[in-house]
Design a protein that fits this description.
about 130 residues; about 5% helix
Amino acid sequence: MLRLVAKGAKLRCADGATPCTLKVMRVDYLVDGHAIANVEDHKPAINIDGFGMCKCMQNPAVAAATAANKGALTPMPCKPPSFSEWTPGAKYIYQDVDGRNVSALTNECTCSCAYGPTVEIVDPATDLNVEA
């Protein structure tokens, strides 16, 4: 079932050790008291914090620590440099405070860390159904 994603949704990275919480900094669109996220809510430290320890070898810190540890995988703190925009987004469009049309974020959306791993939504923080 396709659901709208709101502030407080739980996210998981394929190479992260712990989930994190999606932060929605503006309140462009409220539904039943929930600040609904959109596909542009993918900025590190603003919308998405780290995922605990990172084990992705494309992360330079992990690669360096692993090399120093004679090739044994050595996770390092997750400090993502950037994320791709969430896709696919919903046909559910709303107008933000700047008058732009934006796609709402749904629980089937994913984004990618610049180092490669996929980030998925494991709990959308709403039970608001939406059409694809």
